[in-house]
Amino acid sequence: MDALLTRLLPNVDWTEIGYASLDTLSMLGGSMLFTVLLGLPLGVLLFLTSPRQMFEQKAFYGLLSLLVNILRSVPFVILLIVMIPFTVIVTGTSLGVAGAIPPLVVGATPFFARLVETALREVDRGIIEATQAMGATTRQIVVNALLPEALPGIIAAITVTAITLVSYTAMSGLIGGGGLGDLAVRYGYQRYQPDVMAVTVILLLVLVQVLQTVGDKLVVHFSRK
Amino acid sequence: MINFHQVHKAYRVNGQDIPALQPSDLHIARGEVFGIIGHSGAGKSTLLRLINRLEEPSGGRIEIDAEDVTALDASGLRRFRQQVGMIFQHFNLLSSKTVADNVALPLKLAGELPRSAINARVTELLARVGLQDHAHKYPAQLSGGQKQRVGIARALATEPKILLCDEATSALDPQTTASVLQLLTEINRELNLTIVLITHEMDVIRRVCDRVAVMDAGVIVESGPVAEVFLHPQHATTKRFVQEAEQVNENEQHDDFAHVPGRILRLTFQGEATYAPLLGTIARETGVDYSILAGRIDRIKNTPYGQLTLALTGGDIDAALARFNAADVHLEVLR
């Protein structure tokens, strides 16, 4: 078996693959955590200030929306490079997992916030009206009605964002971010070792597949409709 | 209990004011079931939402228990809303929460009761609406009628003094409608709760309301006790509702009984007069013969009423008409 693997995949160093996988997972976990922590409130804010909602603020929403659109339209590769000075200030390094997380978070947060805004918009207006009629404060409406009702949508948003982050982590190899994508570029592409490329791509595929399946299961679990 | 003084409401759409409610006065007494009927777009939904200020009035004053609710600040408004329950056409239950958690929500938001007291109250409320066995189900697992019962239990959770019903039975089948209306009547009686309901169905008004207001194009065109308004409709809109509800009469009106001999009259009576043997007595004493051309005897909430179209022949018809006029009935001579 070992002999067969070695013959088929002569250039694959499994220890390196293992470390790269761990790097990918920690970049994904770390950036997802901060993306949710920042993107969820941002999404709620976008929703509440959008037209015909509880805190309708035309100018503020317009500005916030523009900012989100600008960040979303910057190609991630550019963002990676532009962010380097900022990343050094925040994490002390622009390399490795720690160096990759800030650009990943900045790249994914506006995307995730938009998805949260859309998920909140899906909540029946009648439910907001009913909680208002109970004498709820806006904060109570968000915490007790909007977020629980939008939970399946928010989980789906987390799933989509996580999968987007997987492909972003691959790009962060360009600035020395490490991980499976980096391995695929450096060995598979630059040194032309197609076996390394194949193994990393398959591992990324498995990761995406697992994320999607778990996400879908959770959405079903929390859907009561 | 609820007083509207020249309350009006206009929506601003593309820089233009679209009136939804013309300046209106309204008085709703404590403990009564007050119905507002109108076609869609008549402004009844706006009027209902002005009561708990889900809609802000453009002008006028709304007093509830002598308190000017139009002057309440944000926290005053929240406290006030806890005293006003509301149920909806589409129930508006939280799909992510169980029946028990839905009913507990207003109590949790009010934040005045400890968890154990909330649980006890929820159990009591679910028993009142007959859903004690469904506490741990989710709304999606219930039928429409059961969902509305959850809505009612939830609306009653904070022991409100007013219950607002927004087309509460419009999404339900006739049988379920009847049972939900029955429940509302019970609640009204047992808790002495003031109920304000809006509907486009005459039948709902006829079954549960004490008084009714008829709305058309943002104006309250007619109001009064239900039997009064519907037996003697004045405004065209009211007449149309009556005709829609009693298709028999509509057909009857097209037929002028041309081939029937004698005088034709319509008698309308309500209350105890419904059961008095008036027709027989007058016929015997004046010697007229009568034949009944059309008629119905029914009840409006608790008031029995009847409406008969008669043809009179022979005898002293003028004396008979005079006797009808003097009696406790409403007489219309059709021919």
| End-to-end gap of chain B | 45 Å
Number of DSSP helical runs of chain B: 12
The CATH fourth-level homologous superfamily of the largest domain in chain B: P-loop containing nucleotide triphosphate hydrolases
Helix content of chain A: over 70%
Contiguous runs where pLDDT drops below 50 for at least 5 residues of chain A: none
Quickly count the domains of chain B.
Answer: 2
Question: What series of H and E elements makes up the topology of chain B?
Answer: EEEHEEHEHHHEHEHEEHHHEHEEHE
CATH class of the largest domain in chain B: Alpha Beta
Proportion of strand residues of chain A: under 5%
Please state the overall shape of chain A, judged from the principal axes of the Cα atoms. Answer: elongated
Q: How many individual β-strands of chain A?
A: 0
Largest sheet of chain A: none
Quaternary state reads: heterodimer
Structural class determined from secondary elements of chain A: mainly alpha
Mean pLDDT of chain A: 91
Order of strands across the biggest sheet of chain B? Answer: 6-7-8-3-9-10
Order of helices and strands of chain A: HHHHHHHHHH
The number of helical segments of chain A is 10
Question: Rg of chain B, please?
Answer: 24 Å
Identify the CATH architecture of the largest domain in chain B.
Answer: 3-Layer(aba) Sandwich
Index terms:
heterodimer, A: 225 residues, mainly alpha, elongated, B: 335 residues, alpha/beta, Rossmann fold, Alpha-Beta Plaits, 6-stranded mixed beta sheet, 4-stranded antiparallel beta sheet
Structural commentary:
The complex is a heterodimer of chains A (225) and B (335). Chain A has helices at residues 2-8, 14-49, 58-73, 76-82, 84-91, 96-121, 125-133, 138-171, 180-190, 194-222. With 225 residues, chain A is an all-alpha fold. The N and C termini of chain A lie far apart (50 Å). A 6-stranded mixed β-sheet of chain B has the order 6-7-8-3-9-10, sandwiched between helices. The mean pLDDT of chain B is 90. In chain B, strand 1 and strand 2 form a beta hairpin. By secondary structure, chain B is α/β, with parallel strands linked by helices. Chain B has helices spanning 44-51, 74-81, 99-110, 115-128, 144-156, 174-191, 202-208, 226-231, 236-245, 247-254, 278-286, 317-326; strands at 2-13, 16-28, 33-37, 59-64, 67-68, 84-88, 162-166, 194-199, 211-216, 219-225, 263-270, 289-300, 303-313, 330-333. Chain A binds chain B through residues 124, 126-127, 129-137, 140, 144-145, 148-149, 151, 222, 224-225, and chain B through 52, 54, 77-82, 84, 86, 88, 90, 92-97, 105-106, 108-110, 138-140, 158, 164.
